[in-house]
Design a protein that fits this description.
single chain, 362 residues, Aspartate Aminotransferase, domain 1, Aspartate Aminotransferase, domain 2, eight-stranded mixed β-sheet, five-stranded mixed β-sheet, 16% strand
Amino acid sequence: MTDDLPGPFDGGPGGGSGGPGGHDLRHHGDSDVAPGLVDLAVNVRLPSPPPWLRERIAASLGDLAAYPDATEAANAVAARHGRPLDEVLVTSGAAEAFSLLAHAFRPKHAVIVHPQFTEPEVALRGAGHPVSRVLTSADDGFRLNPHAVPESADLVMVGNPTNPTSVLHPAKTLRALCRPGRVLVVDEAFADAIPGEPESLAAERLNGVIVVRSLTKTWGIAGLRAGYVLGDSALVARLRAIQPPWSVSTPAAVAVAACCGAEAALEAEALAARAERDRVVLVDGLRELGVTVAGRPRAPFILVNVPDGEKVRLRLRELGYAVRRGDTFPGLSTDWLRIAVRDAHTIRGFLDALRQALIDVG
């Protein structure tokens, strides 16, 4: 299904507290967390960076008097993905990448595949672009049908794996979206959270394709803002031309270089394997409670459908647990909740609380 929506909406760039269709596009998981609650609302896997990364970041603080230089970080990204340097741009997190995309291009027909992370749409609307939404459906597990994207679309954005649905679209489905004159943007913020990074386009040199990566989720550095863009050298050059000078801080550049090394890649793979095991515990426990789990989750978070979901979410808060509300994602209602995967002990405690919440609300 496609929703054609107008350009910037009431509330200023990004929509303020509201958005088209009544969705609060600026709401994120951190807004659902409060002191004293066990956090299953935010998708940052580690509570803090690992010691080796903290040491590298701390060592960079002595260099803060000098202007930052992301050259070493860019070289590390290029080596990690087997790409030439002109196909890499280090950014201040994925959010800066989306903003750069929104200002570097002037699409006549921008399309975003939803439900997905809302910041790309916020960035496009804030830059004055009208946006159409292609809505995937729970009936077929939120899988993307490339034929649902209008041929007229000259800028298409899709997440893989998709937040919040946890769907991993086949690479061939994404390649089917490529067209002459079209820019395809694939948000792979959680790609390194899946063992082996299957279906990733990060190493593929495809004309018209941009891949956005974030390092904050796997490495527990959301407060640092570290990410990068990979893609068609001509498109990357357009982003580089409008990136503000020194937008990537020295500690962030050091973190990017460190997290793209060979040893870090091995550790990321181990973290991804652990997350898969923990996700099985969560999914199995939810199904035992009779909760509907959307599709075939592959990321370190899952989407569930619960009748009276908002009441259940609020009751869970009273019981000490925060989960992410789903109604701020286009295509979802208050009966959808996103749950971050945590360690098995935390998950079991959460399942006990959810069992009680379902009883209390029911």
